[in-house]
Amino acid sequence: MISIIFLLFGIILGQDDNIMNDVIEDRQDRKDLMQEWELMMQDFIPDDMIAFELKQGTIEIMEEGIHHPTTIRGAYFISMTTKEKINFLIKDPKGNIISSKAAKKEAVFSVNITEPGDYQFMFDNERGSSDQMVTFALDIHNATYEHIKHHDLDPLMKQIQHLQNGVNDIMFETKFSQQRRENGYEQMQTTHQRLFYFTILETIIIVSVSVWQVYYIKSIIDNRRLI
């Protein structure tokens, strides 16, 4: 009896450690993400932003044709409430991997493109145990267009364009941050709920052990009296 109780107690402690490790790991990943965002994603205005379901055990591939040297930037994230993580790859027209993110719930990237062609963005959930909802945003910086626009627009149009870019940037950052906050809030609720249930179970086990100890000691005392 007591061995079973201590076994259950050890399992619960192990589960608590796993939960805390997951929370610490997620916080570190988020800290690293924010540092990368500050370095690479200033004035990020996505050309496309989509959400799609990534099935368990599958790889989703998106292709984008790029016809001139440029820089592509982007970000993706999945629900923060899940323990699952996905892999992300970018392949050039020759099939070479030019950027990758392994086992991440969310990530950003910035890649310089020198060769025109069709580039693949691959979301890998082959080792996952459940479907994932992925949000993906991509910006392809058109260097030629930006160069012409900068020299040909009059000062008023430049100011209007600057304001429009600023508004778009704020709208995207607000939407992206809101989705991340909602996911983070859901994850916090789930974690707290699990900790609450584990705490109740721990309390029951501790009370059971205490009652058993009292009963055991009482039985020993009664036996001595009989002797």
UniProtKB/TrEMBL annotation:
It comes from the Eukaryota. GO terms for cellular component: membrane. The lineage of its organism: Eukaryota, Sar, Alveolata, Ciliophora, Intramacronucleata. It comes from Paramecium sonneborni. Residues 49-222 form the GOLD domain. Keywords: Membrane, Signal, Transmembrane, Transmembrane helix. This is GOLD domain-containing protein. It is found in: Membrane. The keyword Transmembrane helix applies. Belongs to the EMP24/GP25L family. It is a single-pass type I membrane protein. The chain crosses the membrane at residues 195-217.
